[in-house]
Amino acid sequence: MSHTLESVDDTVPVDPRAERSRIAILRAAAQIIEAEGYGGVTHQRVAERAGVGRATVYRHWAQLDDLLFDAIATLDAPIFRPGDGETLREWLQAELAYAGAMFASPATQHLIAALVDRGASDAGLAALRKEIGSRADDRLGHRLGKALTDGELTHAADAADASDLAALLLGPLLFRALIQPQELDDAFIALVIDHALPPKRRKM
Fold first, then answer.
1. What is the mean pLDDT of the segment spanning 100-122?
2. I need a surface site. Which of 96, 108, 153, 160 has the fewest CB within 10 A?
3. 44: Cα separation from own chain's centroid
4. Three-state DSSP state, 202
5. CA angle in degrees (0–180, nearest 5) for 159-161-166
6. Full set of structural domains in the chain with CATH
7. Residues 138, 88, 79, 171: is their CA dihedral positive or negative?
8. Cβ contact 93:190 at 8 Å
9. Of 40-44, 94-98, 154-158, 190-194, which range is least confident?
10. More confident residue, 8 or 55
């Protein structure tokens, strides 16, 4: 099936009822992801939350992975959620804990593997993977810019390349969750932040 980020041929007539159910299903799946993580999403759970029959969910998305990918595409920020009320370090600590909990989930690990594997041959998933990265970079870049303005960062270069910093922050969490695997506790996350933002480049 086509994924949410792909263009849709608007010359093909769309059944309004089918489109309403599709939107309700995507919204329900996204709400479950935000509340419980990817592992909470099943055809039955989504059907119940969307107020449609399970057969309707299967008719739109026979494969659960496809439903998950399309639901993820509707989320504002799967990685690095908005937040300006705390310090940069407090925000990073909370967001990396959130990301780490996702990465430790077997459902998320399965999803990451599928995204990497199928993204090589599926244009829609390749676009989704790029979009997820861009969203993360933009959100992190915004927060770094605020930290620079507030004096939390002492060098403009520290806020210049959010993409590199995202890799420095998220890479260790993925390795710890997928390869080792060990608990992603607060002490480990603090260590990751310390290495990504050395003390000489930020105000303590």
1. 84
2. 160
3. 23
4. strand
5. 100
6. 1-75 (1.10.10.60), 80-204 (1.10.357.10)
7. positive
8. yes
9. 154-158
10. 55
Q: Which amino acid is at 78?
A: P
Q: How far apart are CA 117 and CA 126, in angstroms?
A: 10
Closest CA to 41 of 104, 107, 99, 91: 107
Handedness of CA 109, 111, 117, 123 (dihedral sign): negative
CB 69 within 8 A of CB 3: yes
The residues that bridge with 202 in the sheet, in sequence order, are 153
Q: Any alpha helices (H) in the chain, and if so which ranges?
A: 16-36, 43-50, 54-60, 64-74, 88-104, 106-119, 123-150, 162-178, 186-196
Residue 80 Ramachandran class (φ > 0 left, ψ -120 to 50 alpha, else beta): left
Please answer whether residues 79 and 99 qualify as being in contact, where contact means their C-beta atoms are separated by less than 8 angstroms.
yes
pLDDT, tens only, 121-169: 888 888 888 888 888 899 999 999 898 888 888 776 666 688 999 999 9
| SS (HEC) of 4-22 | CCCCCCCCCCCCHHHHHHH
